[in-house]
Design a protein that fits this description.
six-stranded mixed β-sheet, single chain, 10 helices, globular
Length: 262
């Protein structure tokens, strides 16, 4: 990792994003301090995934600007790891779990160079950290949903990123995988990395995140979890008739069928 703790990891300034003529995000403005573990919260269709895709250039912003560590995404691409939703990945890709994790280091080597023993050792270490060291020779398509998610998170870890952008990494995984993912993220952030995580389970927000962004087409609030994750902000984000329990149940409903039982 190579970033100054005094420089914000990510800044959005009056960013708006549209699909055709329909605005999806309007005037999004926030600053994320380095070392933060941030939950991105909001109802389905609120623009959470769009926010991450815009940050890494998959979608263009129609106004405003975005900075990573005080500069552009292109300047810091090698420090940023993005993990999309599982549903957006072609899981029949013909590769082993080891191959997929190793792809996280392709920015370091030219196509004609071999990966070398040191880099292969990094792949093994990342897989061991995610508890999938014994799966290295298994085809990606043969893994369970939780195992696949661990593979893609190991691919992010092997980059040694300063900033991780994770789109619903806890959706459709078992309890043990969720614990491993969150413990790993907490350790990374304690050592200076920053992570933004699209998240649905409101009941775990105080336990998991030190900061939150609450979004519903616009930014409802952003800040320390203890300061802004309050009933009034939840109602403003999810609807005035929803209590915390009801909002949690509402956002969880679309993904309940994907959760795995251990």
């Amino acid at each position: 990792m190579s970033s100054s703790p005094s420089v914000p990891a990510l800044e959005f300034h009056n960013v708006s994003v549209a699909y055709g003529e329909r605005l999806v995000l309007t005037d999004i403005d926030f600053t994320i301090p380095s070392g933060s573990l941030v939950g991105i919260l909001g109802p389905n269709g609120a623009g959470k995934s769009t926010l991450l895709k815009t940050a890494v250039g998959i979608l263009p912003a129609c106004s405003g600007w975005i900075k990573f560590f005080g500069s552009t995404f292109a300047d810091h691409r090698h420090l940023i790891a993005y993990v999309p939703q599982r549903e957006s990945v072609a899981w029949d890709f013909p590769a082993t779990a080891f191959d997929v994790v190793m792809m996280g280091m392709f920015h370091e080597v030219s196509w004609w160079q071999g990966m070398g023993n040191a880099r292969r050792a990094r792949v093994v270490a990342a897989m061991e950290r995610m508890g999938i060291g014994d799966l290295r020779n298994r085809p990606l398509q043969d893994l369970s949903g939780g195992q696949q998610q661990r593979v893609f998170l190991a691919r992010a870890l092997v980059q040694n990123p300063s900033l991780l952008l994770l789109d619903e990494p806890l959706a459709g995984i078992d309890v043990d995988t969720e614990a491993i993912v969150m413990q790993t993220l907490k350790e990374l952030c304690a050592n200076g990395a920053t992570a933004l995580v699209v998240h649905h389970d409101l009941s775990t927000v105080p336990q998991y995140f030190d900061r939150v962004l609450m979004v519903n087409a616009r930014l409802i609030c952003a800040g320390a979890t203890s300061n802004v994750f309050r009933p009034e902000a939840i109602k403003a984000t999810y609807g005035p008739r929803l209590s915390l329990h009801e909002a949690a149940r509402e956002v969880a409903r679309p993904i309940m069928n994907y959760r795995e039982e251990k």
